[in-house]
Amino acid sequence: MGRFILRRALTSLLVALGIVFLVTLILDLIPGDPVVMILGQNATAEQVAALRRELGLDRPLLLRYAEYIGRAVTGDLGRSIMTRRPVAAEVAEAWPNTLLLAATAIGIAVALGIGLGAVSALRPNGWVDFGVRLLALLGLSMPIFWVGLVFIYIFGFYLRLLPIGGSGTPQHLVLPAVTLALPSVALIARMTRSSLLEVLGEDYVRTARAKGLSEPAVLLGHALKNALIPVVTVIGLQFGQLLGGAILTETVFAWPGLGRLVVLAIFARDYPLLQGIVLIFAFSYVVVNLLVDLAYAWLDPRITYA
Amino acid sequence: MSGDRVRPDQVSGLSRREFLGRSLALGLGGAALGVLGACAPAATTGPQSQPPAQAQPKRGGTLTIVRPIDAVSLDPTNDTTAAGGWVATNIFESLLRLDYDMSLKPWLAERWEQVAPDRWRFYLRQGVKFHDGTDLDAEAVKISVERAISPQSRAASFFRGIKGAEVRDGYTVDILTEGPYGPLLRAVSTWFMSIVSPAALQKYGQDFGRNPVGTGPFKFVEWRTNASITIERWEGYWGDKAYLDRVIYKVVPEESNRMLALQTGEADMVFIPALAQVGQFKRDNRFVVHEVDGLRVVFFGFNVNRPPVNDVRVRQAINLAFDRKPVIDNILEGNALPATSYVSPGIVGYKDLSQYWAYDPRRAEELLRQAGYSKGSDGFWAKDGQRLSLKHYSPRGRYPKDAEISEAFQAAMRQFGIQVDLQILEWGTLLNKYTRTGLDAELGTLGWTDVPADAHYTLGALFACASIPPNGFNGMEYCNPAVDELTARGRANPDEAQRGQLYAQAFEMMAKDAVLVPVYNTKETIITSAAVKGYRIHKSEYLDWLQYTWLDK
Amino acid sequence: MGSRTEEALRPVGTAPALVSGLRRFARNRAAVVGAVIVGLLVFTALFAERLMPYDPTLQRLELRRQPPTAAHPLGTDEFGRDILSRVILGSRVTLLVSLVAVGVGLGLGGTAGLVAGFAGRWVDELLMRVMDILLSFPYLLLAIAVVAALGPGERNIVLAIGIWSAPAFARLVRGQVLAIKEREFIVAAYAVGVPVVRVVLLHVLPNIVPPLLVFATLYMANAILLEAALSFLGLGVQPPWPSWGLMVATGRDFLLIAPHVATIPGLAIMLAVLGFNLLGDGLRDLLDPRLRNRL
User: Fold this and answer.
1) Best residue in C94, C133, C178, C257 to probe A by mutation, most A CBs within 10 Å?
2) Which of A214, A256, B257, C194 lies at a CB distance of 3.0 to 4.6 Å from C189, suitable for a disulfide?
3) Is C141 close to A266, i.e. CB distance below 8 A?
């Protein structure tokens, strides 16, 4: 097990480095000079050249990448071109917000999703099942930004129950987390339902029933644990996506997280900030994957890792 | 209805009486202040005139403002966007200020004079302190000026004419220019040349932008990136203390959400409101709509070297064939003015040149025929079998309704018989074309504010031969030595009226040459709840002084 | 080869299987609804010109933001253009984007997955790491990179979405290949001396098709949502041509005063995505219910 973790950690590191390299490469290829972006309408040619030199943008790609990684290891992620603030500070300020949002969303999604999926699987093809499946489909089909706007209108304006946007209090978290969670709820519910249905038909479950165990015991003790394996994959994938993809939600709700920051950084061609953010994304993704694999092993000891 | 418009002439004895009264009561260096009070110009004691005498301002309260984006930095030399200006102009002050009527008034400098063609002397107000308790003196001014003009400053290009500063004595400082530089006072009044605390610069170094220290009526409290910036009243201010306890600037990117926040009371004030809803808010007496003609002109620029628009008749025809009125009425919902020159009224160098692009489709057709075009059976103009077709780049969301007016232009041209192939580009990519690689299209949508309020800046940055990419912003690739010469002469002339005339001549030349298709002149619009009193909107989109604003709650 | 092996090797799509499959499909009501919706979408996209009551790019600024009336059953947008006509034409973009993007993803990812699955060892490891990298890449950065480098327009959005969906297809195909590789009849085929390529074409591919089809259908739904998201952020179809995502994006500023401008295209997106999801589900139930837990 230990060797497995080590090996995975190593490949994960490589993946993370690869991601950062890809970003560096892409940024080099995209037209749009960050220096001109920042200086904008007010730039003189000498200034542009000077700032480029100051930011080291006139050096070759591989060299820049190597230097970046070298410094990153010591914790120095450079300074944002836009704000001239250390990237580490920018990221450190935005990251907890995104984490909070994503964690809350996944929490809601797991609770609601598994719950709805399980209830649905208990009485397949019944009314509850039909309702859950319909809601799940709708949840998967709606554009998230549209849903967010509608929520704001209903709960923020019409009912005056919750704040319009921004962050700061727990009430501010409710709408964005729910909006973000919606597609995940749907996916997890569906996954749970189908997985449970399959497991419930398996031999060992029938054996358990035959042994006389009550339905809830059958469900919780035996079926659920095994049914959850594929669900765990989905949860993991979703969490990874939520961490990186809360962009639309953060924009609509003015939530000051990494998603929003990455949009601003991309449009401003702020390379150092972008690299820093992507680095965090990469690591989160990789860590989440690792956790998912560990959860696998715990849920099903039959799964071995060569 | 917007009864908070204060006339500059509304200076009553009240102001001087009040000022003297306070300085005596404070007793802080009472003699010095008393002397100063007696010698001070009878005008205003801060950036704004007094609030109307009817209502009695209430002290206290927190004003919440929502705006679409966050500031980049609160260091005046590090952020040239309006989002920074809105906050920074309440924290910092400059030597002179650009008043609501676009005239220059004393601020941190009480008097000034030009002692040589390339040397201007400023006499500073005494007894002014920075938020960190240190004194404002000539040394601080020198440091601030040199900082603003240094190559690291993002605003350096506004100060090309300024060479440096010299301390004469404790409260007198000279600013040196490269040769005679007429617009010096205007340049000095921009907020990029605000006076910053040298002690704070020492202390915070590169992080000064997150810990700004100035002399203004408000001091910085905290900044949560992309969420909010908070400032609070500073009790050590040299002039009239602010009424508000605190001001919070929040970031709300979605336009509808900003309007919702105003309606629910979560916000008291909205910057960049939804144009489509302005009318509705005007009719609602729970809110006040503040508007004033702005200083930005949005236009389509021709790349004058690209056929077919390298023919001046084609450019003129396009200008005459485009009816701006329905665009302004319907797309901008009447919240803009027709552009009457390449710069806005109020800028030195403005002259009404709208006759050069007054809607006249007949004349436009005539011009096209003169240029050799004829209208085909498909309704499009063509020459030698080639349809008259133009490529047009536009950003989206960079300027109010930029993509929308470009789209409307496309439709209008189609009706007239010219094909326009419009591409909405992301701003970074488009900016690159305007400044580095050059405009590989016949038209580009752009907006331009003459920040120093003196047209030499626009003429130099946008139309000079020396500014053609990659050396500058002249994506139009327009090069006319006569225009450059007028610009240079104007720039060297300290007389504002004469400067204006020279610049206006240059613009008229370019209007005849149809270098641009001017579309509209912005109207600055800010909506507040009716409880916000004492607020006055400034023509410049960067300036939003809150010293005399108070909440009637 | 014995007849049992023959039968196991026979791909799903032969005649008797097809007919009974269709019958089973028809009994699944949800799937039928999905098929109808998708069919409607395809029909609208193909015959848009005939169906549109007005020119979708004709601006009548005085008539802007009108609510639905007899003359304009879905109202007009901020330029006074007929929304019904724009929704109809927009279906073409929606369909095109989802179809081609998924095709690109399938092509790129599927090939990678095939290669990885068959080659094994370090090739497999390398390709899968590359896919990992792509998977965790912020899709927005990718889209902007593509659009900024190649210019805006639906063609390049399609490329961006295609690249984005490739890793998922790669994983799927690789998984299928790995599963099938070890099955007896393949080993048997090798043993008998059938060349690899023939094995792949005749036996592996047809067995992959069912899950691939399901996956592709479901991914089309995602592609539509992604195109809408990218339009929302400002990259995509160029004016004056309509795309549903773009219509929601530009209409959202008027949500409070003319909600129909943004809501109607939003509903259209939802309907299309729903259709693909239902169809995909139905296909999956039909072709291989065991796939439920792997998709």
Assistant:
1) C133
2) C194
3) yes
